[in-house]
Design brief:
Blueprint lengths: L9 E2 L2 E2 L9 H4 L12 H8 L17 E6 L4 E6 L11 H11 L6 E6 L12 H6 L4
Parallel strand pairs: 4-5
Antiparallel strand pairs: 1-2, 3-4
C-alpha cells in the first residue's frame, strides 16, 4: 500500500496510518521514549517493532531500547538506542537491522542509528505489553 505522508492525518498522538494498527503511540509504548510529531512516526515505530533481539521474544521498541527518534525536513531519521547490556553478542547486528527496517518505510530517506549507554537499560524501560510477555508484574 502506498501512503503519502502528507495526506495522513494525526490527532492527539493517534496515528491514522493503517500500518500503526491503531495504536496510541503515546500510551502504548515504553515509558520515556521521545517521539516526534511527524506523519511518518507511526510507520517508523511499526518498523522498529519488527526488529527483535534474538535472545528475547519482545521487539526492541517495546523492550525500551529506543530512546530518541527524530525525523528532519528531508525525512532522514536519527535514532538513539541502547542494548540490554554493553557486552550484547549482537551489538553490531541490531543497529544495522534497525536502520534497514526503518529505511524500508516509504518516504524515509535514510536512517542513522547511534548506540548510547547512558542511561543504561533496565526493565523499567519496557512497555506494559513487554513486561507482560516476559512475565514481569
Amino acid at each position: 500500500m502506498t501512503l503519502d505522508p502528507m495526506q495522513r492525518p494525526m490527532w492527539d498522538g493517534f496515528d491514522d496510518d493503517p500500518q500503526s494498527h491503531g495504536r496510541d503511540l503515546e500510551g502504548d509504548g515504553p515509558p520515556g521514549v521521545s517521539l516526534p510529531d511527524h506523519p511518518l512516526t507511526g510507520a517508523i515505530v511499526e518498523a522498529l517493532r519488527d526488529v527483535y533481539d534474538p535472545e528475547i521474544p519482545v521487539n526492541i521498541y517495546d523492550l525500551g531500547l529506543i530512546y530518541t527518534l527524530t525525523v528532519d525536513g528531508e525525512n532522514a531519521v536519527s535514532i538513539e538506542m541502547t542494548l540490554t547490556a554493553p557486552a550484547c553478542p549482537v551489538a553490531d547486528l541490531i543497529p544495522a537491522q534497525v536502520s534497514e527496517s526503518v529505511e524500508s518505510v516509504e518516504a524515509v530517506k535514510s536512517c542513522a542509528v547511534e548506540l548510547v549507554w547512558d542511561p543504561p537499560w533496565d526493565p523499567s524501560k519496557m512497555s506494559d505489553e513487554a513486561r507482560l510477555a516476559l512475565g514481569f508484574d
